[in-house]
Write a structure and sequence with these properties.
Length: 305
């Protein structure tokens, strides 16, 4: 006899669970979210905390991650051991089950994803680097998405722009998983500009993802890249009525108008649909970069509002 099931349709609300944000970890009082505030276009509503971190401090936050046990109760080597054990449990036991997956190959694939988190690496580049075929790589990717260790952020498409890349952008869901998979600490991350840039981008995404799930504006997160690579924007938040907020993440303490050139291009293309853009940086100052464009410290994500 087949087991009876109850779908819960119309009776259950699904609430996605993500890692803790810095706003939660720091006990910042509730208020309007970052994207909603940016959409209002008022610089005064985007206030960072009284103390702004520097680049090493941001990397420390990223490597701390949002797992409650590790982030709230553990420090230093104890936290590293916890994160390594968590990742090992997922990749060598929970993910294997009765399907006969090779844990060594799955780990290598996860490490390749960690190296390319917040990137648009070609599928073939990833599975060739690991030594697996396309079918196996797709199965691994679906598995990691189902385990909520990998997030596929869809490309943003609009009839106002042509020749946009349609492939999703891959993020590890928690930046601490990047650190654990690649055996990173702040010192080793600082040695590689590309790597700490990806770590910062993954960290910012981990702060925005829960906000999108709870926002009254019900915005959705995307990325944008032209096929020729001339224009690329890290995060596109599409709100109701097709309004757009765009965000770039830069590992600089002093962003210039050139750092906002892709945002300015999109603003000019979209007109009134573009309601706000920000270059998030590792400095302490906030200032205008042109109409509807701001340079803001990354910590504005959990600042006072």
């Amino acid at each position: 006899m087949e087991a009876q099931t109850w779908p819960g349709t119309g009776r259950v609300v699904r609430v996605p669970m993500y890692g803790m944000t810095v706003r939660e970890l720091e006990g910042v009082s509730s208020g309007a979210g970052f994207v909603e505030s940016l959409a209002e276009g008022a610089l005064d509503s985007l206030e960072p905390p009284r103390s702004t971190p520097d680049l090493p401090a941001y990397l420390e936050m990223a490597l701390r991650g949002g797992f409650p046990e590790a982030a709230l109760r553990l420090r230093g080597h104890e936290r590293t051991v916890w994160l390594d054990g968590y990742l090992d449990q997922i990749l060598t036991r929970d993910a294997i089950g009765a399907n006969g997956r090779d844990p060594a190959r799955l780990r290598r694939y996860f490490e390749a994803l960690a190296l390319n988190s917040a990137g648009l690496a070609e599928d073939k580049t990833l599975y060739d680097a690991v030594g697996i075929d396309r079918r196996t790589a797709l199965a691994y990717e679906r598995l990691l998405v189902n385990l909520m260790m990998l997030e596929l952020v869809p490309a943003w498409l609009t009839n106002r722009l042509s020749r946009l890349v349609k492939a999703p952008k891959r993020y590890l869901t928690d930046p601490s998983l990047v650190g654990s998979a690649l055996r990173l600490d702040v010192r080793t991350a600082m040695r590689d500009g590309d790597l700490f840039g990806r770590l910062l981008d993954t960290f910012v995404a981990s702060q925005l993802r829960p906000e999108a799930a709870l926002s009254t504006r019900r915005f959705r997160l995307h990325h944008l890249r032209e096929r020729n690579g001339r224009h690329e924007i890290d995060v596109i938040a599409e709100l109701g009525a097709h309004e757009v907020v765009a965000i770039e993440v830069k590992a600089t303490a002093a962003p210039s108008a050139d750092d906002a050139r892709h945002l300015a291009w999109l603003r000019d293309k979209l007109g009134d649909r573009f309601v706000g853009g920000a270059v998030l940086h590792v400095g302490s100052r906030r200032f205008s970069l042109g109409p509807k464009l701001f340079a803001l410290p990354i910590c504005t994500l959990w600042g006072r509002r």
